[in-house]
Design goal:
The chain is mostly helical. It has twelve helices and no strands. Helix content is 71%, strand content 0%. Helix 6 runs antiparallel to helix 7. The protein starts with a helix and ends in a 7-residue tail after the last helix. The N terminus is likely disordered.
Amino acid sequence: SYYQSRTMEDKMEKKLNSNHLKIIAIIAMTIDHAANLFYPSFPAQPLPIALHIIGRLTAPIMWFFIAEGYHYTHNIKKYLLRLGIFAIISHFAYCFAFGINFVPLKTGIFNQTSVMYPLFIAVLVLWLQDSEFRYKVLKHILIFVLVWSAFPADWSCIAVLAIIGIHRHRGDLKKQTLIMMLWVMLYAVVSFFFVNKVHGIIELFVILVYPLMKRYDGQRGKAKWLKWFFYIYYPAHLVVIGIIRIIMYGDTPILF
């Protein structure tokens, strides 16, 4: 029948499992950070712009799978502990990579820590939202403070809010993408006027993740080690970038 043939076509189109998408995210992230290294301060030149556009695939893939991880985890406390430790390690690696002071807010309010902190906060907020709280007002105040605590991080509060939206609309990729893009547009506007105009425009290219996510088949993939590979690779590649930065430029910042 027509519906059976459509179902078969949909299954054939969906050929990317979570491992495939995570590998794409890792490659895109490496390209993006290499562009920061070799073309500091987001210059308005074709090659670095193209490299950063490729890099926009990373964050939305990470957001999607953090929401998926929260949905599927059997032990939320272990998941939070792992993300929390990861965020602390990644903070020092991120700051070393790009020449940022290890003490947050000492030199500015933007890009003071890695995107891993908002990922940790997003899961913590989702857990609080789903938890029974005796004092609901206190719960809402706590969530508000946690969301805003991510403001100085890479991708700021937007990463937290995007993950919450993605989780809320789980199973509806169009709605997930729409809510994500609404938050990203806000971030792009702030970046355009207060950080870097080229950076602000480039952020909108996260929309390129949509055709990739449309091919996601909902499967984890056979390589279970890949989850731990990402936890190791993220801070490790930042340390390498930091070493090359010092060799190339001396101990100076290269982001903005």
